[in-house]
Amino acid sequence: VLNAGWPLRMLGLDVTRQVYFSREDFAALPQLDQARQLLRQQAPGWIDRVESQGWEQGGCALHDAVALVALLDDDLFEWREATVTVELEDSAARGRTMITASQQPGSNLRVAVSCDVQSCYDRIRSLLNASHER
């Protein structure tokens, strides 16, 4: 995929982990449907797990939701042209991606290096609080 020549954007954990929801944020979600009820019910257990692993404290990142925001409004992110290589030889590191700034103008790959954290948080919160009629 990285060598296919398609225009690509990559959004790493270093960026998605910046946007984080606390236990209180999850508890405040409306119970408008089964999906949000499930999210409210399962979030505390997930937060317990990420805390026990030392990944985060008091909440957790919503990686997929941040990726959705990047699709909906990529202006909330700072993107840089880059070159990505994938380790294939070292079995211990196989599959690891290594990103370097691209020296070639017009690169087909853009990597998010930062985001407007508050705006991303607000957008996700707005989407989760929205009432959708069928």
What does this protein structure show overall?
This protein has helices at 13-16, 23-27, 34-52, 63-72, 117-129; strands at 8-10, 20-22, 59-61, 77-86, 97-101, 109-115. With 134 residues, the chain is an alpha+beta fold. The longest helix has 19 residues, at 34-52. The mean pLDDT is 88.
Short key terms for the protein model shown above:
single chain, alpha+beta, 6 strands, 23% strand
Helix/strand layout:
Blueprint: E1 8-10, H1 13-16, E2 20-22, H2 23-27, H3 34-52, E3 59-61, H4 63-72, E4 77-86, E5 97-101, E6 109-115, H5 117-129
Parallel strand pairs: 1-6
Antiparallel strand pairs: 2-3, 4-5, 4-6
Strand ordering within the main sheet: 1-6-4-5
How would the global form be characterised?
globular
Q: What does the main sheet amount to? A: 4 strands, mixed
The low-confidence parts are none
Radius of gyration: 18 Å
Please sum up the structure shown.
By secondary structure, this protein is of the alpha+beta class. It has helices spanning 13-16, 23-27, 34-52, 63-72, 117-129; strands spanning 8-10, 20-22, 59-61, 77-86, 97-101, 109-115.
